[in-house]
Design a protein that fits this description.
By secondary structure, the protein is an alpha+beta fold. It has 7 helices and 18 strands. Helix 1 packs across helix 4 and helix 1 packs across helix 7. Bound molecules: flavin-adenine dinucleotide (FAD). Flavin-adenine dinucleotide binds next to strand 11, strand 15 and helix 7.
Length: about 325
Amino acid sequence: MSPLYPWRYSAAVTALAHWSQDFYPRLGEDLLAQTGIDPEVHVSGLYWLDLEDEAEALAWAARERRDLRAVDIASVYGQVPVLGAGFAHAIHMPGVANVRNPRLVKALRAALAALPNVEVREQCPVTGFIQQQGRIQGVTTADGPLYAERVVLAAGAWSGELLKTLGLRLPVEPVKGQMILYKCAEDFLPSMVLAKGRYAIPRRDGHILVGSTLEYAGFDKAPTEIALQSLRASAEALLPTLAKAQVVGHWAGLRPGSPQGIPFIGELPSHPGLWLNCGHFRNGLVLAPASCQLLVELMLGREPIIDPAPYAPARRLFEGAGG
Ligand SMILES: Cc1cc2nc3c(=O)[nH]c(=O)nc-3n(C[C@H](O)[C@H](O)[C@H](O)COP(=O)(O)OP(=O)(O)OC[C@H]3O[C@@H](n4cnc5c(N)ncnc54)[C@H](O)[C@@H]3O)c2cc1C
């Protein structure tokens, strides 16, 4: 629940990340109380190892008032005895949490299903938009048209494909990512660790998630052997005892890649009635609560939590992409 290297992002991403990070613990508690499903917001902290831009990271943290400190490498080995040998320096953010995203989605789905006016339609692809009297008034689907006063496009990496049907080009492209999962003893890894762009995340029950690849391969979502070997090598460099552990899961997903990872949040002025919430790239989970809150406030004409200007779709889309 933090960008991998938060100091390398723009103020626009930071603003959404910080609002969401402060909100997540309450969201986890509320969802557990409402649904009985615990998304496990787990504050484990995070060590960045052998970073090249440690000074930039520490300067960013001082500016943003986030608790990030340089730590003695001996103390890191004391805290994380399973860490591989040879790391020379580290910084630590004790307050970073992780969340079990499949459980989060299950809990959110159950909370939505309990609302009287919500209907979830699955396996029902949207094929285009209904445009009448200069407004977007609904969508066409495999099961027929659906009319609405306002439509929100939140189709992740596929958002651009849908906007093409309106002759618009949204700079959102699929960026494939693969991860692997191990199962270890519950106390195997007390903290998240990150080196050379690869990370290990401990779940409370001893599952260890290792990610991730960054691949530009269109809409292909198939896990590959080459990524499996590369992720295993990274996992074993970080935590050598994993060489003896079994990989119990391996999967791929598509991130909605966007320029600088800044999402598109707001109404499309050229197409009133059509709202966007997409393009969150590598940080869709961490940015989700703030993005949704901002979207709702804009839709209801309320005072927004943060300045919406950096996310406004106007001028960030191009016309004439064809059908
Ligand atoms: C390996 C990997 C690791 C990641 N790690 C992190 C992390 O640690 N932290 C973090 O914050 N983010 C992470 N991300 C990124 C995060 O997953 C994305 O940013 C996030 O999922 C984007 O959310 P979204 O709802 O916009 O899109 P998605 O989660 O992709 O959801 C879009 C949905 O729209 C549906 N859809 C598409 N087209 C249509 C259509 N025509 N009709 C109907 N439905 C449609 C899709 O089926 C999908 O269910 C990771 C991603 C990957 C792949």
